[in-house]
Amino acid sequence: MISILMASYNYELYIGEAIKSVLNQTWIDFELLVIDDGSKDGSVALARSFAKHDSRVRVLQHPDGKNHGLPETLSLGITEARGEWIAFLESDDLWEPACLEQRMGLARQTGADVILNAIRPLPMPGADTGWFDIFVPRVMREHEHRTTRSGGAYSLQSPLLVENKIPTFSCAMLKAENLRACSLAAPVPRWLDWWIWIQVAQNGLFAFIPAQLTSWRLHAGSYNHKTTLKQCIQDNMRLWDGFRSLQESYRQSGKSYSYWFLQSPFWSRLLARFGMIAYQSGIFDTLKQIHNRIR
Known about the structure:
Helices cover about 50% and strands about 20% of the residues. The longest helix has 21 residues, at about 130-150. It is built from 13 helices and eight strands. The chain has helices at about 10-25, 45-55, 70-80, 100-110, 130-150, 160, 175-180, 190-200, 230-245, 245-250, 255-265, 265-280, 285-295; strands at about 1-10, 30-35, 55-60, 85-90, 95, 115-125, 170-175, 205-220. It is α/β, with parallel strands linked by helices. Strands 3-2-1-4-7-6-8-5 form an eight-stranded mixed sheet, with helices on both faces.
């Protein structure tokens, strides 16, 4: 069984569509856990209306009914999950009907620990898609190239140190045992996904489906919002320090490149990322991406 975690906070406008996209899956052996994080709108009542008619849907809330943030909300869902695999669907995103079926097919074929798929943008009126148009297609091409080179599953241990190669929770699923072995104490809570992937990558392999099975809704209220240049640098430094705190596990894994890379100054990571993007996309598009990601 696949346990699907849907964290929700005041997304009454979109959560019904998200739940329907799960219930319309061709793969039927799943449970959907809608974990509410103190919503004040009608999203909880809407989710419960689905649970009333489909026993695969369960609605969870924090004991005090208050807002606790994404790490604690996902932790509640992980504790309650009963599946061998855990998939994520953000409460404003959508899946294609064959999403889970194709993921499970690739999981059986490759034996990978994390399965991810390509992403389709779903922009709302007024949404700025510039950063998406540059960043996401580039990262998806990287996954295709790694698939071609490896013939199946591949490692992301070192690449994930440079940048997050899985742009949204909604496009990935992983083995439950791998997720439960991770710390959720992300130094930057809004980058919890990156924090999880970097830990899973130490011993796990990834596999990629090039089909756009996830629709990522882009709007002004998204959790993945723009930030100032100063805040972006500060958050990157905090995350880098967090990665360094995990360096002992890197060293024990025998992958010395990752270990020694973490000993280098923080700025070396930014330069490495700039150089990688510039090599793939050119200087102009790289500068454009940076401009579109900050105010």
